[in-house]
Amino acid sequence: MPSDLDQTRAKIVIIAAISVFSTQFGVTVIAPLLGTWVEASGTPFIVAALIFSAFTIVSTLLNIPGGIISDKLGRKPLIIAGLLLYAVASALFPLSTEQYHWICVRAVQGAGAGLFFPAITALLSEVSSYEERGHAMGVYNIGLGIGLAVGPASGGILFDRYGIFMPFLVCVAFAFLSVVLVLLFVQEPKLRIERKGVGLLLPERERRRLTLACSVIFFGIGVAAIMGALFSPFAFAPENLRLSAGIIGIILSLMFMVFALVQAGFNRLMKRIGELILSAAGLFLCACGLFVLYVATSIFELVIMSLFLGAGLGAISLGTLTLASKVAGEGEEEQEWSGKVMGIYYTVFYAGLGGIPLVCGALSEVFGARLLFLAYAVLLLVVMGVVWRVSRD
């Protein structure tokens, strides 16, 4: 029979999944509406770029400071602050009518992410044992993937049926529900001790493992990023397949649903082959998906592509996130800096999420989106080879 401690830990993992669902739902529910508004307003390119990139710029800058603050003050205050910032952004969005208002609201969302993600994942590393870390991160990723999958479709449906305020009221409700759950049911382990003048002193092996996890997630999350930036109704799809925005949205939602569904199976596999090998396998699956996209001539092939990419991103996220959380460790000595470790991981995560689309978007103007997919697939195979070689040493 599970002990009270085991039940408490399981409850925290589930609350973490609900909380990350609410954040991803809050971001993606806005996506179809924001894209339509920006296009209709005739916004200059540089301003439109700032609207979409303000989130990643601010979150990238805040992840390490947010992790360090959570090491000093505790995880709950940063988790709650991040969720409340998501709620504030959702409440302000329907009231924002100017282009620069949208930039500010997206920046508020980014600030919420910068505080929330290092703290919530550091908390999971503290409440889960070293052996069960993959299971905790898998449940967390299920919440994240479902939020990414259902957000865009929900935003469009709620807007069409109930008007401008309803999608954002739902976002606020999810955020406040998560805050209440964290306040009532999350208790932090009291293992944190403060040492003045001591930085992040990881052993050589752990530094290398964290570097590998960050390298893989940087290029891996770039796959999801360029899907949103390039595989859109206004870029790749109309020229080659003449797809509607709705069909493209369904294909992308399927990708993220697969991301969520593979977590349990990949966690069992990861226990056999390790985090790095699973991450390398994820890079291979993503490369396969991009190869399919390169030659795609039908909706069926795009569905196959979404299966490959969803599974690949699921493997990459689970493998790298579990590896980074294990570097953060468990126990007094490690928990002292686990927030900073996860802050480093998410800094690289958001750098890839924001930086790779900018580079790939510029290159696609020169070489075309289809050739870019092929080139990025080759790049992923190169990174996979490096990770595989290092993992064998």
Identify the CATH class: Mainly Alpha
Kindly state the percentage of residues in helix.
over 70%
- What oligomeric assembly is this protein in? single chain
What would the principal axes of the Cα set say about the shape?
A: globular
Number of domains: 1
Architecture per CATH nomenclature, i.e. the level-2 architecture: Up-down Bundle
Order of helices and strands: HHHHHHHHHHHHHHHH
Mean pLDDT: 85
Strand-pairing-aware structural class: mainly alpha
Largest sheet descriptor = none
Beta-strand content bin: under 5%
Q: Low-confidence parts lasting 5 or more residues at pLDDT below 50?
A: 193-198
What fold name stands as the CATH topology? Growth Hormone, Chain: A
What can you see in these coordinates?
- This protein has 393 residues and is mostly helical.
- It has one domain: Growth Hormone, Chain: A, CATH 1.20.1250.
- Helices cover 84% and strands 0% of the residues.
- It is built from 16 helices and no strands.
- Helix 8 (204-230) runs parallel beside helix 15.
- The longest helix has 30 residues, at 133-162.
- The radius of gyration is 20 Å and the shape is globular.
- Mean pLDDT is 85; it is low at 193-198.
